Amino acid sequence: MKKTILFLLVGTMVMVSSCKDQVATNAISTDDAAQMISMSLATNSMGATSIIQTSVSTGNSSSSIAPQKVKSVNSDFVISVDTTFSVSSKPGAIISYSFSANYGYELTFNTQLQLTNASENYTYTGSYDAPLIASTHTGSGVFSFTNMTSGIWTVNGTFKRISDDVFKGIQAKTSHSETNLNLTNILVDRSSSTIQSGTATVTITGTLPNKGDFSYTGTITFNGANTATLVINGTSFTVNLITGEHKAK
Questions:
Q1: Element (H, E) at 16
Q2: 187-219 residue pLDDT tens
Q3: If you ran DSSP here, which 8-state letter would residue 90 be given?
């Protein structure tokens, strides 16, 4: 009898502990997590896609600096370039946004004065207001660029966003979160600055007042044509890399 009671108590404790873990993990739904990750990717919300495209465009325009200043060199050389820019949406836009960013580059040129590779660190701040979610956030990261003598550049690096989000709708809620992306072999067209392919892993953690913590991990595959596939918790979503809209497959 004592063994039976002990067994029941242990079983109850395990169930309670499991329930607590489930509540903590699911303080937001998988769909909410996918929404936050999607906005962390989108150009309209100063997501990773916007950072990559702007970085390639800026690096591309900076490639003319060396020939203007140096006539000839005997070995590879490096120059530093810093730039700051701000962007905002047009009045009346469905998704309104305002952002500012600081980029710091180390550009490496070969003896033919061709840009061969580069490294970059960046920080940014901003806010956006979309139909389903609004956010204010800050972020930072580092990128490395290779194959820069070709028409398709390769980008590897990190993207971090710390944000305060407001989910709209019937069950309105707020959250504080951190999203981290590790980007691997992102191929970007030099002339258009558009992403052709590549992959990333993503982790998002955070908390909801009176609800608890949440934590999700996932994978991202860039498909070209301004779309990506996000897989999180076994669910696959198609993400629009311009608007941040997502749709379960």
A1: helix 2-25
A2: 999 999 999 999 999 999 999 988 899 999 999
A3: P
Q: What is the three-class DSSP state of 38? A: helix
pTM: 0.84
Whether 57 and 43 have beta carbons less than 8 Å apart is answered as no
Reduce the DSSP state of residue 23 to 3 states and report it: helix
Separation of alpha carbons 40 and 35, rounded Å: 9
Contact between residue 86 and residue 126 where contact means Cβ atoms under 8 Å apart: no
The domain limits of the chain are 29-248
For the record, the structure tokens of 232 come out as 């999180």
Tell which residue, 51, 43, 36, 46, has the closest CA to residue 186.
51
Q: How far apart are CA 121 and CA 139, in angstroms?
A: 11
Q: Report in angstroms the alpha-carbon separations of 117 from 21, 61, 75, 113.
A: 46, 14, 14, 12
| Residue 58 near residue 105 (C-beta atoms within 8 A) | yes
Distance CA 222, CA 243 (A): 15
